[in-house]
Amino acid sequence: MTYCLAINVNDGLVLCSDSRTNAGTDNVSVYSKMHTFIWPGQRFFVLLSAGNLATTQAVVKKLNNDIPAGLAPNLLTVNSMQEAADYLGVVSTQVQKLHTSRDTATTSFEATFVFGGQIAGQAPEMFMVYPQGNYIHESREHPFLQIGEIKYGKPILDRVVKRDVSLERAARCALVSMNSTIRSNVTVGPPVELLIYERDSLGEGRRIYFSEDDPYARQLSERWNEGLMKALQDLPPFPWETETKTAEDDGRVLNFPSNA
């Protein structure tokens, strides 16, 4: 399975993906699910992929090959992020149809993508592109998108990620979201890739690769676990816990009525 997420805040974009692919319990491999297309000073695109590996690889290859082949539209000719998302949707559905026409079994060739980036003179944007080729934009209230195993890492995003969060804090939040997913689902695993793109930089950004035994990733996980335990301990007690403690301090015994 897969877990990928993208965050769009005022200062730029944060993208994070795992690298584990599964074709059965005895066939686990590592493939990058983060792909960048960059023309410094002009445009920056990043693609996160989930779904059938043959489809995602073929889509990425076509996105790269359409440019030197002079086929239009392509990532260099589109005039907006929305046009780029339209183009990606068309490429994805074409690839799926081609694979399906060759298949003699009942294989699913569906793939889902998170596509983000910026074109010079325009605001950064990101879209989730579905297998059918249609897409959605992130919401104002929740400026993030997820694909794959989304349920384990979503709570922290819901609570923390807002438009005014700094890039670095959003990046740490993305790593915690990924860490929570990895701990709860064995089909998602390292290496983890993180990309931090500063708004209007139109460059490569900061791309970081976290292996399974990376010291920073391990420290972040330990700190988060410690923080959760402390937060649990600091939660307010039930009323009867406070009353029991007071009675013990006074040397008295209180008998509480049964609800049965």
From TrEMBL:
Gene3D superfamilies: Glutamine Phosphoribosylpyrophosphate, subunit 1, domain 1. It comes from the Bacteria. Pfam families: Proteasome. GO terms for cellular component: proteasome core complex. Keywords: Hydrolase, Protease, Proteasome. One of its GO terms (molecular function) is peptidase activity. InterPro entries: Ntn_hydrolases_N, Proteasome_sua/b, UCP009120_prtse. One of its GO terms (biological process) is proteolysis involved in protein catabolic process. This is Putative proteasome-type protease.
